[in-house]
Structures are given as structure tokens and as C-alpha cells.
């Protein structure tokens, strides 16, 4: 699809990647951009139409779909990272992270799919992560949610193909946002990530590997678990030492 003259809705558009998506959509000629956030008063980008939205609240998601029936491009960006482990961490926190990062995106797709069909098919972008494919102590709940979101993305892509809706999975290592502020490593700039994703949509791509880190991680998937974990350990050590 063509970004120019599209009508887009971006979740988590008050900061970080979401704000960059909304800004680049405007700059690339989108006719309308709905910028959503749990606290809509924190959206400070001129030129957008602000909507309140909590993707973990089905009633809020339904209200957003009713308020934005003209959407042709859905950007599922909002998410959380709680730093929780699966065995020793709070199960309630793990469930909350899963409800937000996977079921929240799925709920958005379910509510907006009819509008996308009415508006010609359009496209969905799910912002995922290289951690769709690997975990680590202190981040395994996040890994679980992104792996589940990857599988969900692959499933809805098949289900929505008949209505002409493109579903694009976007994977990245770290972006230069508040969520990654504690990592002293190279990070992709949010506008560059947004452009890579939007370029992928315009090219009809099912998957965008937005940086070298995500490309390297995916290339290791054919390895055995032992080989994969050893390779990832070496890669992470080298990343932190750089």
C-alpha cells in the first residue's frame, strides 16, 4: 500500500517509537494520523488526531475502533517490559505483560480488521523484537510475549489475506528510547525504525528486520538450542564490551 494519503492509527504515540511513527507518517503524506495513548494529554505532536487508548482494556480498544472507522493502516507499537523472569517472577506480572504485548495487539487487530476490509484491505504493522527469538535472565517474560506476538502475527497474516490486508512483522534489537536507556550500546534511531517499517509496508513485505542485530539473531535460528545459546552469549558479551 501507499503511505501517502493513508489513514493511520498508532498505538503508544506519545513517546519513543510510537511518536516517531506518527511523525514520519505525517511527513510521508498520510492524510490523517490517529495518535493514541493511555494518557492522551501526553501526546504533543502537532497535526495528529489524539485518541485515548489502553490496548489492555477491551472496552477502550472497542471505543477507539468506533472513533476511527476510516483507518487503512494500523501500527501496533504500544508495549511494556517489566524485567520479570518466568520461574521466580510474579505470575500476575507475567500475565499483565502477555495481556499487553500479545493479547493487546490481537485485540486491536480483531476490532480494526472489519474497518480495514471496508477501506480496501490496508495494512497492519506489529512492532516485535529480536527477542521474539531469544530470552535471557531478567527478560524472559518479555521474550515470552514477543515470541507469542510473532506467532500471532504469522497466524493473523494468513487469516486476513483473503480481505487483502498486509500484515508486517517488524523486528529490531534496541531502539534509542526510554525502554532501552540503561543499555550503553548502539541503538537504532526511532525515525530510522519507522522508515524501515513504512518502507516494508510500501514494498508489501511480510517481515522487516530493521537492524543488523535482528538479522544476526534470525540467521542463527537453524542452530541447535545449545549452539544458539552459546552463539547468543558470545554476541551479547561482544555487544557489551564494544
From TrEMBL:
Swiss-Prot/TrEMBL keywords: Oxidoreductase
Source species, domain of life: Bacteria
Keyword field contains Oxidoreductase: yes
Cited InterPro entries: NAD(P)-bd_dom_sf (IPR036291), SDR_fam (IPR002347)
Coiled-coil blocks: none
PANTHER family (alphabetical): NADPH-DEPENDENT 1-ACYLDIHYDROXYACETONE PHOSPHATE REDUCTASE
Family: Belongs to the short-chain dehydrogenases/reductases (SDR) family.
The name this protein goes by in its record: SDR family oxidoreductase
Amino acid at each position: 500500500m501507499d503511505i501517502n494519503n493513508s489513514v493511520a492509527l498508532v498505538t503508544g504515540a506519545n513517546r519513543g517509537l510510537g511518536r516517531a511513527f506518527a511523525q514520519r507518517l505525517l511527513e510521508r503524506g498520510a492524510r490523517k494520523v490517529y495518535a493514541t495513548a493511555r494518557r492522551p494529554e501526553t501526546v504533543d505532536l502537532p497535526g495528529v488526531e489524539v485518541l485515548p487508548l489502553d490496548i489492555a482494556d477491551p472496552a477502550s480498544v472497542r471505543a477507539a475502533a468506533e472513533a476511527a472507522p476510516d483507518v487503512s493502516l494500523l501500527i501496533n507499537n504500544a508495549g511494556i517490559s517489566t524485567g520479570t523472569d518466568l520461574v521466580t517472577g510474579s505470575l500476575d506480572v507475567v500475565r499483565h505483560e502477555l495481556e499487553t504485548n500479545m493479547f493487546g495487539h490481537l485485540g486491536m487487530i480483531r476490532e480494526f480488521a472489519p474497518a480495514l476490509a471496508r477501506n480496501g484491505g490496508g495494512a497492519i504493522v506489529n512492532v516485535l523484537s529480536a527477542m521474539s527469538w531469544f530470552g535471557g535472565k531478567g527478560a524472559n517474560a518479555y521474550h515470552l510475549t514477543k515470541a507469542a506476538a510473532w506467532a500471532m502475527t504469522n497466524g493473523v497474516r494468513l487469516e486476513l489475506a483473503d480481505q487483502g490486508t498486509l500484515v508486517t512483522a517488524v523486528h529490531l534489537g534496541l531502539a534509542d528510547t526510554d525502554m532501552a536507556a540503561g543499555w550503553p550500546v548502539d541503538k537504532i534511531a526511532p525515525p530510522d525504525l519507522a522508515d524501515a517499517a513504512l518502507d516494508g509496508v510500501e514494498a508489501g513485505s511480510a517481515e522487516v528486520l530493521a537492524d543488523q542485530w535482528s538479522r544476526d539473531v534470525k540467521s542463527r535460528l537453524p542452530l541447535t538450542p545449545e549452539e544458539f545459546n552459546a552463539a547468543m552469549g558470545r554476541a551479547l558479551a561482544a555487544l557489551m564490551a564494544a
